């Protein structure tokens, strides 16, 4: 049994959908395929400067549309991207450091199903991010609170 590398998996999925994988597109996919951390479109464009910003942005959009990348709205409203593990999910986002975790929220899906049943809209998607402080930042956060208490 051969295991596909992340890059081959993504390229195969896009080819299956009938997309042509040009060399610049391949370079973008290669950069994002096994990336763990969040990244912004600007960061990626800077890393792939010879590829050209427009191609980087269009390829990111393609990967998001195909469910291969997640678009995450951080606490300050800025947008970043992260690899998607394909199954529908939501994100827990740290307001302090931007750390992001995937979460499955079955109750939310049940609510969306009720909305689907109760409206004449064709409901196609929804977006819910849950914001808070990650375990690491939560510590700093309470230290900051203690300092605050001592000062006032
Ligand atoms: Zn995600
Ligand atoms: Zn954090
Ligand atoms: Zn959902």
Q: Could you explain the architecture of this structure?
A:
This protein is 47% helix and 15% strand. It is an alpha+beta fold. The chain folds into 2 domains: 1-86, Arc Repressor Mutant, subunit A (Orthogonal Bundle); 87-152, Ferric-uptake regulator, C-terminal dimerisarion domain (Dna Ligase, domain 1, 2-Layer Sandwich). The strands form 2 sheets. A 3-stranded mixed β-sheet has the order 4-3-5, with no helix packed on it. Strands 1-2 form a two-stranded antiparallel sheet. A hairpin with a 5-residue loop joins strand 3 and strand 4 (100-103). Helix 1 packs across helix 2 (23-33), helix 2 packs across helix 4 (53-65) and helix 3 packs across helix 4 (53-65). The radius of gyration is 19 Å and the shape is globular. The model has no long low-confidence stretch (mean pLDDT 88). Residues 70, 82, 84, 89, 91, 102 line the site of one zinc ion (ZN).
CATH architecture of the largest domain: Orthogonal Bundle
Placed side by side, the strands forming the largest sheet appear as 4-3-5
* Apparent shape: globular
Chain-averaged pLDDT: 88
Tell me the Rg in angstroms.
Answer: 19 Å
Q: What is the domain total for the residues?
A: 2
CATH-assigned homologous superfamily of the largest domain: Winged helix-like DNA-binding domain superfamily/Winged helix DNA-binding domain
Largest sheet: 3 strands, mixed
Helix content: 40-55%
| Percentage beta strand | 15-25%
Q: Any idea of the CATH topology of the largest domain?
A: Arc Repressor Mutant, subunit A
- Give the low-confidence spans: none
């Amino acid at each position: 049994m051969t295991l596909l590398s992340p890059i081959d998996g993504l390229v195969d999925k896009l080819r299956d959908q009938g997309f042509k994988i040009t060399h610049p597109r391949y370079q973008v996919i290669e950069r994002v395929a096994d990336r763990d951390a969040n990244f912004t479109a600007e960061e990626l464009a800077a890393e792939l400067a010879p590829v050209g910003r427009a191609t980087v942005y269009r390829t990111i959009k393609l990967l998001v549309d195909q469910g291969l990348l997640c678009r995450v709205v951080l606490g300050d409203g800025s947008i970043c991207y992260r690899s998607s593990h394909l199954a529908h999910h939501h994100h827990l986002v740290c307001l302090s450091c931007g750390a992001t975790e995937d979460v499955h929220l079955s109750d939310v899906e049940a609510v969306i199903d009720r909305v689907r049943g109760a409206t004449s809209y064709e409901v196609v998607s929804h977006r819910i991010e849950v914001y808070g402080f990650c375990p690491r930042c939560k510590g700093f956060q309470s230290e900051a609170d203690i300092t605050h208490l001592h000062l006032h």
